[in-house]
Structures are given as structure tokens and as C-alpha cells.
Amino acid sequence: MSKLVPRIKFNANTPCIEHVVNNDDQCGVIYGCQLLSQPNSLPPNLKTILYVHSIAIIPGVLPPTITRLWFGRLYNIPLPPNVLPSSLTELKMSVNWDQPLEQGTLPQSITLLEFGQNFDQVLLPGVLPESLLSLTFGSFFQQMLAPRVLPSSLTYLEFDQSELPTSISPPDEMFIVAGSLPQSLQTLILPGWFQCLTKDMAPSSLKRLQYGFCTGVPAQGELPSNLEYISFKGLGGPLMSGTWPSSILKLKLPLDYSLNIVPGQLPPSLTKLTLRRIRKPSVSGAFPATCIRINNVEL
Q: Within this chain, do residues 169 and 96 fall inside the same structural domain, yes or no?
């Protein structure tokens, strides 16, 4: 195990400490779920824990030096307040974890939080810490994000795109509404299907926007004015002229986009275009003069 990634691993099959890899007391592999029932029983200088068992962790077990905690797929137990130490900066939940979160459970030190695929619980204002910079939801998450649920510190928000739809159809209910997204947000990765964001949904701070299957097409004036990159895995119609803000530099179109591109449909400031299986434009001037790189064009 690398000295650069100190960690501890639990397994039910061997209920005792087996070995410590390095003598610096920072990088270790420990097997034994019985340790979790005894506060202050773990080595005090551990930095990273990978927990692969299904037994609840009681307050006082995790040492105050822990910065990263990752749960394996077996863990699906409520996580009460006072379990996670204030030193924690990175938390990755189990793929199967789907439990409600109380206010005060997540310490104000966390900067990165990843929920697993099955998580689909209502989040109330104040549950997510104001220290949070990066947040990822799994593909099953469909709860509405009311205003003030996402902290004002957030710069990166991702909804897993691994479960893509077989057909483009609008969801029953939008879970991003006006005021959901904080003005600090710079990167937004939307789920496998989503309606086009409207101007009151997308913060002006947004620089990178990645759609899965967009159930429509962006309308004129609806995209954030500082957006630099936008990509689509699916589009519900042809590109419209006058859609793009002057800040757009990179555009990635769906793999199956096979419509002709005519002048005015692409951002005038575009420097890089990625597309496939598109026919050669029938009208000259379809590609902006600023576009110096075009990837994967099949003319």
C-alpha cells in the first residue's frame, strides 16, 4: 500500500488487528469490526478509512485525524450526529446507502461529498455543511432541491449519468427549481434525462454545463452569460440560432446528431467543436472562424 494513501480497512472475517503497513502510524490496514464498539481503539494518526462492513459506528470510534472516509456497498445504516470527526474533508457513501440525514450529522469541515446510486432522501436546509465545495448524487436521486438546501460555497454539482434513458421523455417533476442552485456554482453535470435549464434556474457563475439527454433545446437568452463549455448526450430537437452566449468556447454535440449545421447555429466564439456522424454543412460559413479544432467529424 502506498505511503501516500494512509488508510484502514475493516472486514468481518478477521476480528483483530492484522498488520500495519508502515511504521509512521499513518498508513495502515486493520481488519476487525469489533474495534468499532470501543472508542479510542483505532490508531490515533489514521488519515483515510475504507469501511466495508455493515455494523454501525458509534461516537468516539473514529480518530480526530481522519480526513477521508469511504463506505463500502454493505453499509446502509442511519448515520447519527457526533459520529463523524470535525477533521473529515472527504466523505463517500455506500452505493446502497439510502438513509435520512439530520442537521449536524455532517461536520462543517467536509469539502467533498458523494452519495451512492440508491440515495433518494429529502434534504432540508442546513443539512449540508457550508464548507462543501463538491457534491455528487447517484442516478436514483429524484428529490426536489428547494432553495437554500445547497450551500452557498458549492462550486461542483454532479448527478450521475450512468443510468441513461432508452427514450427521451420529460420527468414527472423537476428537482431543480428557481433558486435551487447557488451563485457559487461553476460546474453542473445533469442526470441521464433533464429538461433544458431556464434562466432563473442557472446561476450566472456557471462555466461548465453537461447534459445527459436534454428533453428540449436551449432557448435564446436562457443560458448563463459566463458559460464556457456545454455538452449534450442527447437533444430533443435541432440547434437554434441565437442560443449561445458569447462566452461559449467549447461545444460537444450528441453522438447521433445528424442534422446539417447552418450559419448561426453554432456559438460565434467557439474554439472547439466535438461531434460525430454529421453530414457536411450545405451552406458555407456554418463553422465560426474562431473554431480552430473540430473533433470526430464524419463528412
A: no
The pLDDT tens digits of the residues spanning 190-233 come to 987 788 888 889 999 999 999 988 888 888 889 999 999 999 98
- Identify whether 200 is part of a domain: yes
- Cα–Cα separations (whole angstroms), residue 206 to 80, 134, 289: 34, 14, 25
Question: Is residue 116 assigned to a domain?
Answer: no
282 phi/psi in degrees, rounded to 5: -85, -10
pTM of this prediction? 0.85
Widest Cα–Cα separation across the chain = 73
Please count the structural domains in the chain: 2
User: Could you tell me the residue range of the domain that residue 250 belongs to?
Assistant: 139-299
- On whether the CB atoms of residues 198 and 224 are closer than 8 A, the answer is no
CB atoms within 10 A of CB 143: 14
Q: In what order do the strands lie in the sheet with 213-214?
A: 193-194, 213-214, 234-235
Same domain, 54 and 176: no
